[in-house]
Amino acid sequence: MSETTGRTTTDTIDREKSPSSAAGTATSTSLVKKDPAGDRGKTSISDIVVAKIAGIATREIDGVQDVGGAAERVVGRVREVLPGTTTSTTQGITVEVGERQAAVDVSIVADYGVAIHQLAAAIRRNVVTAIEQMTGLEVTEVNVTVHDIHFGDEDEGTDETPRVQ
């Protein structure tokens, strides 16, 4: 290997670390991690986007019967009945989004028999993973509030014929 080839390789590596490094001096590693397209514009992620991601990630967990407090669930049921409307994916989800970080509050109804502490941990893992992978934001916290417990036999009573006809 020639001496010239060695210098060229070193110069190339140094330029990759810092575009302004003409003398071949090493610079901080933060420049290496910089997105090459980052200087061509700014990406802003709306709160609603993060809330939708968190809502979908929460509903993916077994043991979550519903998302939201009592009032939110009533409004959600009304929306399901009205033609042309859909269930809100942000129901029961509150987020705060900064430039690099996000915090999430999740309200749920758990299925009876599920270990609530394990359910909350699974929700946290899934929400953090989904938001960080999709947005690149660091999730600082996911607070889970369990509003109610759902018993499986509560739905069975609605299929019976009425007592009075």
UniProtKB/TrEMBL annotation:
<dbReference type="Pfam" id="PF03780">
    <property type="entry name" value="Asp23"/>
</dbReference>
<dbReference type="InterPro" id="IPR005531">
    <property type="entry name" value="Asp23"/>
</dbReference>
<feature type="compositionally biased region" description="Basic and acidic residues">
    <location>
        <begin position="32"/>
        <end position="42"/>
    </location>
</feature>
<comment type="similarity">
    <text>Belongs to the asp23 family.</text>
</comment>
<feature type="region of interest" description="Disordered">
    <location>
        <begin position="1"/>
        <end position="42"/>
    </location>
</feature>
<feature type="compositionally biased region" description="Low complexity">
    <location>
        <begin position="1"/>
        <end position="11"/>
    </location>
</feature>
<protein>
    <submittedName>
        <fullName>Asp23/Gls24 family envelope stress response protein</fullName>
    </submittedName>
</protein>
<feature type="compositionally biased region" description="Low complexity">
    <location>
        <begin position="19"/>
        <end position="30"/>
    </location>
</feature>
